Amino acid sequence: xxxxxxxxxxxxxxxxxxxxxxxxxxxxxxxxxxxxxxxxxxxxxxxxxxxxxxxxxxxxxxxxxxxxxxxxxxxxxxxxxxxxxxxxxxxxxxxxxxxxxxxxxxxxxxxxxxxxxxxxxxxxxxxxxxxxxxxxxxxxxxxxxxxxxxxxxxxxxxxxxxxxxxxxxxxxxxxxxxxxxxxxxxxxxxxxxxxxxxxxxxxxxxxxxxxxxxxxxxxxxxxxxxxxxxxxxxxxxxxxxxxxxxxxxxxxxxxxxxxxxxxxxxxxxxxxxxxxxxxxxxxxxxxxxxxxxxxxxxxxxxxxxxxxxxxxxxxxxxxxxxxxxxxxxxxxxxxxxxxxxxxxxxxxxxxxxxxxxxxxxxxxxxxxxxxxxxxxxxxxxxxxxxxxxxxxxxxxxxxxxxxxxxxxxxxxxxxxxxxxxxxxxxxxxxxxxxxxxxxxxxxxxxxxxxxxxxxxxxxxxxxxxxxxxxxxxxxxxxxxxxxxxxxxx
Length: 489
Known about the structure:
The chain is an all-alpha fold. It is 66% helix and 0% strand. The longest helix is centred in the N-terminal third of the chain and has 30 residues, at 82-111. This is Pentatricopeptide repeat-containing protein.
């Protein structure tokens, strides 16, 4: 209780209501020719009384060679009916309008990330004689397929593009390579890199190498990262700031802080890839997540001295790090500093504060923060309700867990794996295994993917009451899911 009172005093001052600052290849078609008929009409002279006088013969037009050949008077009078011309023009305009409408439908499917429907609409367009897909359309589809985890579909589309005679570019090859990288298919991505190096007009650039470096970093294959750096040096390709930020993040997540500082020192000394606010955010989030508060503050000052200005996300990182270490005074100071500098509090700002109180079961300050969030018109998201559910469970207020789930439904908050894991953990903490099983069934019915946290939470709940048969069933179910995932891959 004393802790809650002190937290309320230190935190409430920064939560006082104040106004937020508003800071195809087209087929050839023939043009219709409009023919003009010329008539030479010479009226005969009036008849005279002299019978020997004959009327002069009619003069004929002498056309130059090649000017108007081979057209008789009868052919000149047979003009195509105007109504038939109009029908043909209407059909052409109608087909073009249809293509434009379907093109808009394709753009809509791409925007909504519906990759299968986008491919179906694209196939319809390709069958039309008035539509010829361009490089930009293929680029958008390749990016969409990559982000949707469909590298094989991306490869098929790329091959189709080549069959239709469209010249590939390094950008298109990089988009195809990125599709394999997003699915962690490192060997296939390197095979595409080798194809690019064999084509004079499709040589890899810094974006190609940055994409490959990221997948190698995510897979902790740092030996490949060094080889890619060497290859870039041989090709006179200088890594940019984005490339270095990717490598910094990878070294930090792997705990290789000495390598991380080496890369950062190179950036500070470089003239081509200076550190920016993303660099600062990457370093602060990595160090702060590990709980190294002193190191985080040191790097923050170092970046400021170097001339890098913080942004809202920078302050949110600091708030989150202080909150996890229960340094509420510093957390509150950062929030007041944001107000002073006219940096708006965002959903992430409130989520970090709610999470800090949720981790220690401080329901009072957690609710106060959530109410202030809604009062200022800030929209809650899935993480907000995950923190609320965890906080109420830690405080033993399980009836409020139910209320939070119901409120999330009313607000149409997206329910993902993390959301259901928090509800399952709350049920397990309350020893309500029947409700836990109902939530798990609902999770599967809604096709929400389970993960290791889901199973470990339920197994621990069953182990506490000695329900070994339930544990066995869960383990078998997990094995089947792992096998299915392998088959899908």
